[in-house]
UniProtKB/TrEMBL annotation:
Residues 1-77 form the Apple domain. This is Non-specific serine/threonine protein kinase. It comes from Helianthus annuus. Pfam families: PAN_2. It is an enzyme of class 2 (transferase). InterPro entries: Pan_app. Coiled coil: none annotated. One of its GO terms (molecular function) is protein serine/threonine kinase activity. Its EC number is 2.7.11.1. Keywords: Kinase, Serine/threonine-protein kinase, Transferase. SMART domains: PAN_AP (SM00473).
């Protein structure tokens, strides 16, 4: 989680005003293209869900003391999936030496 941030550009986003943060996390986790999620109602009951897909644009820290900053939750991919993607890209490296698989 990253705190006190101005949320990214919302052109590639999806929202639902009635979801809890836990439900929002589950929606993001089950969507392969989801990269990040946040609450939409930060001042009230912390309800609502906002998710992003793809690259995050125009994200920055809110000025110190500014209460408009929000928490942003970045989705971390499964290590096995990352390892497979890296091995697929560098196929010869992964098959030549097993010592490289320890690095990945």
């Amino acid at each position: 989680m990253y705190s006190n941030l101005k949320l990214p550009d919302s052109r590639i986003s999806w929202f639902n005003r009635s979801m809890s943060l836990e439900e929002c996390e589950n929606v993001c986790a089950s969507n392969v293209s989801c990269t990040t999620f946040a609450n939409t109602n930060i001042r009230g009951d912390k309800s609502g869900c906002l998710t992003w897909s793809g690259e995050l644009m125009d994200i920055r820290e809110a000025p110190q003391g500014d209460v408009s900053g929000q928490d942003l939750y970045i989705k971390i991919a499964n290590l096995k999936v990352i390892r497979k993607c890296i091995c697929d890209f560098f196929a010869s490296m992964c098959h030549v030496s097993s010592s490289y698989s320890n690095i990945l």
